[in-house]
Amino acid sequence: MEVTAQTAAGWPFHALLRGPPLNRPRVAVQKTNRKGRTLYRSSLTVTSAGSLRSIIGSAGQRHKLSLRCLSGYAGKLSFFSHPSASFFCSISLGRTSMDRFVCYTSEGETVQKSYRWPDNQKPRICILGGGFGGLYTALRLESLVWTDDKKPQVLLVDQSDKFVFKPLLYELLSGEVDPWEIAPSFTELLKSTSAHFIKDKVKLLRPSDHLDNSGKNGPGKSCSGGTVLLESGVLVEYDWLVLALGAAAKLDVVPGSAEFAYPFSTLEDAIKVDDKLRMLEREQFSKDSSTISVAIVGCGYSGVELAATISERLKGRGIVQAINVETSICPTAPLGNREAALKVLSSRNTKLLLGYFVSSIIEAPPSKDSAVFIGAEQEMSVDNEVKTHSKYILELKPAQRGLQSQILEADLVLWTVGSKPLVPELEPSDHPRALPLNGRGQAETDETLRVKGHPRIFAIGDSAAMRDSSGKLLPATAQVAFQQADFAGWNLWAAINDRPLLPFRCLTTIVTSSAHWMSSFQNLGEMMTLGRNDAAVSPSFIDGFTLDGPIGHTARKLAYLWRLPTDEHRLKVGISWLTKAAVDTVASLQTTIANALSLS
């Protein structure tokens, strides 16, 4: 039943009730002003929009309107006004008596809109984050076999419109890949599926699955699990939620790091670093200036791969200085990978500063010789002086005894140390509840990947604090996210179909008509790039064995080609790589022939 009325301010105001006509929700209503003073408190049975007409408020006031359901209501109730009224609120009562919502009214505020699911009778799965965990969960759900009435509607939300295959970001700096190959759009990847995509950022998470843990509805029944508020103002109501938001670089570690250091974890980061390197290379070519200096903070996998890639690119025109608090590089890597990396770095213009930590980064005074040239033109400032790029000074403190403090000067500083998970915070309510987070900000999960205390929320990848049988946290790597995505897809299928959920630690192989995979984390080995034609691959199934050099490079690229999201994209990238390899081979052959002829 839909009823139309007028608010006190004269706005057209609507109430939409979906449910049995004899069953009307009884709600407790409270209105407070900006200072928290209660202006109105009452309880009433909502039968029309006029029931709330007297308490909405006028246009020039900011009021907080809180509604709480006091009786069960098997339906949905929404209140909204004309968009110019800047007012919207919605309550989905479902089959529980404890749903609630809070909305704000104020002139000029962004109108809050609800995401319209195609069919509210089918399960609604919202996936936050489109990295390895989020995207591959959506694709896994699409590949499973569903009955028509239980096939879920899937919504993927990410702040970028592109999926980024992060292990291949280094190849952007070496020129081996094009951006479209490792960063296809979500629209392209999901076009053959029923999943939908929204480009937006998560603002607030409002779970309600913790309000009623009696389990009387059964694990597969469809009732609201909560809502997600996006920065655009869109409110998404879900039945099941997957937290796969990944992590961001943690730059605010030492003074100056956030202002002057470049992270390297997104496509935008890689493009910025590539642009900076191009600018430095152009400047050196134009002015024949001093050697380009690049400082890399951190010698884990990311730092070492960057050091190898950039040192090969710069050759004799630059020096790469890699700083690490440990006395070795990649301390957790297999011995074969570590030895291959040391061999490559020692053969290039790279300096390792081990046993040091960076205490501060400051901008060096500009020098007259550091003029920046863009193409053949100079960028001129207002007073017609040539713009100069900044150099940076890093202060190094010893982390080991016997070392002395050092000062480094660099044209480019790359920061690869530390990350912070992007798990959203819960909105405060009358009974504050938060996701159980560990010290790093990851959601604590049980063995089925469900967030503890929230049976309708799954967390995977960097968003999850999943532990192995020995109690250690699983590493935040792509292969962990790959496998958790398969597993989360299966457990969502099992929950919706009233089947038992499987523990991730189980060491058996699951074989059904719709799925076949290992139901535990299987460490398949570790890989790292060391340049355009060099890499190290240590498979876990052969102890002590490492492929390096050109063979390792080929093995790594083939492994990642196989891991690309869809068959169509995999085919396009495979053809592109084969074409590039053929062109490189012909060019190399021509160079060899030309050199031979010149010597004869």
Descriptive report:
This protein is 24% helix and 28% strand. It has eleven helices and 35 strands. The strands form eleven sheets. The protein has a five-stranded parallel sheet. The chain has a four-stranded antiparallel sheet with strand order 1-2-6-7, with no helix packed on it. A four-stranded antiparallel sheet has the order 4-3-5-8, with no helix packed on it. A hairpin with a 2-residue loop joins β33 and β34. The N terminus is likely disordered.
Brief write-up:
The longest helix has 33 residues, at 567-599.
Main beta sheet: strand number and arrangement? 5 strands, parallel
Helix residue percentage: 10-25%
Overall geometric form: globular
Number of helices: 11
Q: How many strands in all?
A: 35
Distance between the termini: 93 Å
Category from helices, strands and their pairing: alpha/beta
Low-pLDDT runs of 5+ residues are: 1-22, 48-65, 70-110, 213-222, 370-387, 506-519
Mean pLDDT: 78
Global Rg: 28 Å
Share of residues in strands: 25-35%
The largest sheet has its strands arranged as: 12-11-10-16-29
Family: Belongs to the NADH dehydrogenase family.
Domain FAD/NAD(P)-binding: 124-485
Pfam families: Pyr_redox_2
Catalytic activity: demethylphylloquinone + NADPH + H(+) = demethylphylloquinol + NADP(+)
Topology, please?
Blueprint: E1 2-6, E2 12-18, E3 26-32, E4 38-45, E5 63-69, E6 75-81, E7 88-94, E8 100-105, E9 113-114, E10 124-128, H1 132-143, E11 153-158, H2 170-174, H3 179-182, H4 186-190, E12 196-199, E13 202-207, E14 226-230, E15 234-238, E16 240-243, E17 247-249, H5 257-260, H6 267-287, E18 292-297, H7 301-314, E19 318-324, H8 335-346, E20 350-354, E21 356-363, E22 373-374, E23 377-378, E24 392-398, E25 406-410, E26 412-415, E27 419-421, E28 443-444, E29 457-459, E30 464-465, H9 478-496, E31 509-511, E32 516-518, E33 525-531, E34 534-539, E35 547-548, H10 549-563, H11 567-599
Helix pairs in contact: 1-9
Protein name: demethylphylloquinone reductase
Domain FAD/NAD(P)-binding: 124-485
GO biological process, one term: aerobic electron transport chain
